[in-house]
Write a structure and sequence with these properties.
This protein is an alpha+beta fold and 596 residues long. The chain has four domains: 197 residues, Four Helix Bundle (Hemerythrin (Met), subunit A) (Up-down Bundle), CATH 1.20.120; 102 residues, Beta-Lactamase (2-Layer Sandwich); 84 residues; 162 residues, Heat Shock Protein 90 (2-Layer Sandwich), CATH 3.30.565. The protein is built from 14 helices and twelve strands. The strands form three sheets. Strands 2-1-5-4-3 form a five-stranded antiparallel beta sheet, with helices on both faces. It has a five-stranded mixed beta sheet with strand order 7-9-10-12-11. Strand 3 and strand 4 form a beta hairpin. Helix 9 runs antiparallel to helix 10. The N terminus is likely disordered.
C-alpha cells in the first residue's frame, strides 16, 4: 500500500501551535479563576464565623461588665472594677474590629452602630451606679425603675446581637452552600483541565512521532534518490552544480571528478577552480553563458572544451538557469554533460553528409548526362536503326537480321531506362508546388496518354468520382499512368484487362503499419485489376528500385515504375500499399491526406 506523506506548511503549524497555547492558557485561566472563587468562598465563610463569634464575644463583654458591677455593688471591693474597666476597653476594640470585619456593608455597619450605642449607654448606666458616691444604697436594695431600665436596655443589646448573629447565620448557610459547590467544582475543573492538557500533550506526542516517522521516510527516499541520481550521473557521464550568487558558494556533484579525471584535492569547487580546466580559447564562452543566464532568467546553453587532468581534450555542454529559493535568494543551477562521443559522431555524420552531398552532385551530373549527353547519341543510333530497317534490311543475311533485331531491342530498352531514370529523378528533385486539382481530370489525361495500350489490349477502365486535393499535378498523372500501365502490361493472356478505380474516406488508425492516427482523415484511392497478380510476400519488394518479379523475356520493363509511385505518394505525405493474389489480380491502395 502506498503511504501518503502529508506536507504541512509553516503557517498551518504556527496556527496549530498558537491555538494549542491559547487552549492551554485558557484552561489554566479557568483553573486559576476556580481556585480564586474557592478562596473567596472560604474567606466569606470564615468572615461569617468571625462575625458571629465577634457578636457573641461583644455580648459576653457586656455581661462581664454587669457581673463586675454587681460584685462591686455587693462588696464595694474595687477589685471588681478591673473587669469592668477591661470590658469597656475591650468592647471598644471589638466594635472597631467588628466594623472592619463587616467592611462597607451599610446594613451591618448600621446594626453595629446601634449595638455600639446601646452598649455605651449600658456602660454609662453601670458607671452611674458604680460611681454615685453621694448615695449610699442599702445592701440588696433595688431601684425598680432603674432595674427595669437596665433590663430593657440589656434585652435590646441581646436582641440586636441575636439579630446580627441570626442574619449572619443565614448568610453563612448561603456561603457554606456556595463554598461546597466551589469545593465540588474545583477538583472537577482541575481534573478536566489536566485531562485536556494531557490530551494535547498526547496528541502532540503522536503528531511529532508521526512527523518524525514521515520525515525518516522522506529522508530515506531522499537518500535513495541521491544514490539513484549519482548512479544515473555515472552512467550518463553528467554532473550537476549549484551556485549561491549572494554567498558566492559553488558546489558540484561528485561525478565532476570522474569527468575531469582528477582527485577531490585536485579540484577546488569555485569558479576559478573549474575554469582552470576550461580550454583557454573557450574561457569567454563560460563568462558569456553566466551573463546570459543572469540577464534573461532562462535556460542558457553553452558548448566548450575542457582539458582533463590526463591531457585529453573533451567537449562539454552546460545548461544553466537562475531560480529563487524559499528565502528569495538567487541560486544558479546547471547540468554539465560530456558530449565528446556525440561530437565525434557528429563529425563522422558531417563527413558522411559531405560524402552524400558529393554523391548527390554526382547523381545530378549523371542525370544531366542521361538527359543530354546520352540522349543525343542514342537518338542518332535509333535514327540510323530506323533507316537501316527501312532501306537495308533485305540485303542482310539471316544472322545479320537477327543481330539487327537485338540491337533495335537494346536501343529501345536503353531509351526506356533513361526515360524512367529521368522520371525517378524528377520525382526526387522536382520543386514541390501544390495546386488544388480535381483528380478526375488528372486521371482522364492519364488515360488519354495510355489510349494506344488500352486499345491494343481491349482494356476496360471503370472509375468512380475522385476528390479534389492539393497535389503536384504532373506527379499524380505519372502515378496514375504507372499503375494503370502496369495493370495492362501484367494482364492475363487472352483476357481483356478490367481496371477499377474507386475512392473513399477513412480514418488514419485503420491503416496498418502507418504513422497515421485516429485524428487523420484520408482519401483512399484503390486501383485494382484482374491480371496475373503476385504473391503477397513480394508486396514490399515490388516498390524497391530496379526490383522485378519477372524476367525481360516474360514482361518488358525496368523495375523503376512502382518505385516512382511510392516516391510520388511520399511527396504528398501519403502512403501506398500493394495486395496481390496469383492469377486473380492486384490492388494498389493510395492514401492521401484530405485537403483542409
Amino acid at each position: 500500500m502506498k503511504r501518503k506523506i502529508v506536507k504541512l506548511s509553516i503557517p498551518y503549524l504556527l496556527t496549530t501551535l498558537i491555538l494549542s497555547i491559547f487552549l492551554l492558557v485558557f484552561s489554566a485561566a479557568i483553573t486559576y479563576k476556580q481556585f480564586l472563587e474557592l478562596t473567596k468562598a472560604e474567606k466569606r465563610v470564615v468572615q461569617s464565623h468571625k462575625v458571629i463569634l465577634t457578636a457573641q464575644e461583644l455580648l459576653s463583654t457586656v455581661k462581664d461588665a454587669e457581673t463586675a458591677q454587681r460584685g462591686y455593688l455587693l462588696t464595694r471591693d474595687t477589685i471588681f472594677l478591673v473587669p469592668y474597666k477591661d470590658a469597656i476597653t475591650y468592647s471598644a476594640k471589638i466594635i472597631t474590629d467588628f466594623k472592619k470585619l463587616v467592611g462597607n456593608n451599610p446594613e451591618k455597619q448600621k446594626a453595629i452602630d446601634t449595638l455600639d450605642f446601646l452598649i455605651h449607654k449600658r456602660f454609662d448606666i453601670i458607671a452611674a451606679s458604680i460611681f454615685k458616691k453621694d448615695i449610699e444604697l442599702p445592701l440588696f436594695s433595688v431601684d425598680k425603675k432603674s432595674m427595669l431600665s437596665r433590663k430593657d436596655l440589656v434585652d435590646k443589646i441581646r436582641s440586636k446581637t441575636n439579630e446580627i448573629i441570626k442574619n449572619e447565620k443565614m448568610q453563612l448557610k448561603i456561603r457554606e452552600s456556595e463554598h461546597r459547590e466551589e469545593v465540588h467544582l474545583s477538583p472537577l475543573t482541575f481534573l478536566y483541565t489536566s485531562l485536556f492538557a494531557l490530551s494535547i500533550f498526547v496528541i502532540a506526542f503522536f503528531k511529532i512521532k508521526s512527523d518524525l516517522f514521515h520525515l525518516k521516510l522522506a529522508n530515506n527516499q531522499l537518500l535513495i534518490n541521491k544514490r539513484l541520481f549519482e548512479h544515473s550521473e555515472n552512467i550518463s557521464n553528467i554532473c550537476n552544480w549549484c551556485w549561491n550568487l549572494e554567498a558566492n558558494h559553488l558546489t558540484f556533484s561528485n561525478n565532476i571528478h570522474y569527468m575531469l579525471r582528477c582527485e577531490k584535492y585536485d579540484f577546488k569547487q569555485t569558479v576559478e577552480g573549474f575554469s582552470k580546466f576550461v580550454h583557454p580559447d573557450d574561457q569567454h564562452i563560460i563568462t558569456n553563458g553566466v551573463k546570459e543566464a543572469l540577464e534573461i532568467y532562462k535556460t542558457a546553453i553553452v558548448y566548450y572544451r575542457v582539458i582533463r587532468k590526463d591531457g585529453v581534450i573533451c567537449y562539454f555542454k552546460s545548461e544553466s538557469k537562475v531560480i529563487q529559493d524559499n528565502f528569495h535568494k538567487n541560486i544558479m543551477i546547471g547540468v554539465i554533460s560530456d558530449i565528446s562521443e556525440q561530437h565525434h559522431n557528429n563529425a563522422i555524420l558531417e563527413e558522411k553528409l559531405f560524402d552524400l552531398e558529393r554523391t548527390n552532385k554526382e547523381l545530378l551530373a549523371f542525370n544531366h548526362v542521361a538527359s543530354h549527353d546520352l540522349q543525343e547519341p542514342l537518338r542518332k543510333i535509333q535514327n540510323f536503326i530506323s533507316r537501316l530497317d527501312a532501306n537495308e534490311m533485305e540485303s542482310l543475311s539471316e544472322n545479320g537480321r537477327t543481330y539487327f533485331s537485338r540491337i533495335k531491342v537494346a536501343a529501345n530498352r536503353m531509351q526506356l531506362l533513361i526515360d524512367d531514370l529521368l522520371a525517378f529523378s524528377r520525382a526526387n528533385k522536382a520543386e514541390k508546388v501544390y495546386e488544388l486539382k480535381d483528380l478526375n481530370i488528372l486521371l482522364k489525361i492519364s488515360i488519354q496518354e495510355l489510349a494506344q495500350s488500352i486499345e491494343e489490349k481491349y482494356a476496360t477502365i471503370n472509375t468512380s468520382a475522385l476528390p479534389s486535393l492539393n497535389v503536384i499535378p504532373f506527379q499524380i498523372q505519372q502515378l496514375f499512368i504507372n499503375i494503370i500501365s502496369n495493370a495492362i502490361k501484367y494482364s492475363k493472356a487472352n483476357v481483356a484487362p478490367v481496371i477499377t478505380i474507386s475512392s473513399e474516406i477513412i480514418c488514419g488508425k485503420d491503416i496498418i503499419k502507418s504513422s497515421f492516427t485516429s485524428e487523420n482523415k484520408l482519401h483512399k484511392i484503390t486501383i485494382s485489376d484482374n491480371g496475373i497478380g503476385f504473391d503477397e510476400e513480394y508486396a514490399e519488394d515490388i516498390f524497391i528500385l530496379f526490383n522485378r518479379l519477372h524476367s525481360d523475356t516474360e514482361y518488358y520493363g525496368t523495375g523503376i515504375g512502382l518505385t516512382i509511385c511510392r516516391k510520388i505518394v511520399e511527396n504528398h505525405n501519403g502512403y501506398i500499399t500493394a495486395e496481390g493474389i496469383p492469377n486473380v489480380g492486384s490492388r494498389f491502395n493510395i492514401y492521401l491526406p484530405m485537403t483542409e
